[in-house]
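Audit log entry. Action: structure prediction of a protein-small molecule complex. Ligand: ISC. The ligand was supplied as SMILES and no pocket hint was given, so placement is left entirely to the predictor. Protonation state taken as written. Sequence taken verbatim from the request; no trimming, no tag removal. Recorded inputs:
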Amino acid sequence: MPAPVAPVAALRAVTVEVADPEILLAHADPLAPLVALRRGDGIVGLGERLRLTFSGPDRLRAAAADWRAIAQAASVDDAVHRPGSGLVALGSFAFADDSAEHSVLVVPEVIVGRHAGVSWVTSITPADAPTGVTGTALLPDPRPFGARPRATLAAASLSREQFTAVVGRAVAAIREGRVEKVVIARDATASIPPDADRRALLRDLADRYPDCVTFAVDGLLGASPETLISVHAGEGSARVLAGSTARGASSADDAAAAARLATSPKDLDEHAFAVQSVLDALRPHARAVMASELPFTLKLPNLWHLATDVEVQLGAGASALDVVAALHPTAAVAGSPTDAALALIAELEPFDRGRYAGPVGWIDQDGDGEWVIALRCARIDGDGTLTAYAGAGIVADSDPESELAETRMKFRPIADSLR
Ligand SMILES: C=C(O[C@H]1C=CC=C(C(=O)O)[C@@H]1O)C(=O)O
């Protein structure tokens, strides 16, 4: 049953085209960045016009319903009509139904964005506020980037030995038939100065992982390669990732590593579960769903992944958050079957994943938006405590030491940005 919709003040959003603001990140708040960028384009939010928090099993459905009500009540004057222009909320949701961490949707006061050479500034005010300044006049001057904080990640809730033991128990549970696949994660912490410029880490991530979505919402930041769902005018696309291997040191080794991954029965199995979970979740919302039969190998600076792109024609009225609510958690971050995998994760992982492996992204007034899975990420608390997360899909043939090595590679985006 959909959660009751909280009454909301009507908002007005005015978007005007502006000259290229150049480095979008330079406009973000150094301590509380709100960011969704890919290849330098995307959106950066400033201030908080509205913050909605959610928790519990209904958190995504409640957010979808609240956002629909907010969008319907809003007046939007958007002369730009690009992905991310107009009224937009950025959001980040907890992985688990019983997480102690809140899920959030934040509507900024000002958004600066760029898409394919067109730049804009959106101002979001209460609908009854006097019409004020618009455009570049709203933008604070770009601020010089502070120094990148340096720190070393240290294993937190599970030592490396404990992690391999947990993976061993996961393999045993799979062989006993409790699940077919389960994703086991570990956390690692570091401490950075509380006033460190978060944008310096984001800039480093965006430079090194340009094809990923570099995101920052409410203290969670990272560079994710996995698109949960991107929705535009009724068309959706997803990129399913599962199955990974290290990059080779030479180009011959690298090509051999990719070829081995593409033919590894263990990784192909792990991948197939993830694709199936996405297709099953999309079908009820779709008029048509298309996915290639075989995965391709996706090259990232730290890893090769098996990847499948999925295209979907959505049914009338399905918003990006409706689809996110249906998709989360996919077998790329939970396992298969979902409920049994979630129960096993709760039993084996001695920590709250928080918003790691949850959906993070943005939604606009039409319900369009882009949501990725919060991977290769860390949460930075106000006191400078940084907690990073990395997990690996476990199937019957998984080797605990290889899975430990895989998590080490998945920590690299965050670990290297702290070097
Ligand atoms: C759970 C993570 O990655 C998922 C996404 C891609 C490949 C994965 C794998 O090969 O295990 C995982 O399913 C993570 O990065 O923490």
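Audit: result stored. The first helix runs from residue 59 to 73. The CA atoms of residues 234 and 317 lie 8 Å apart.
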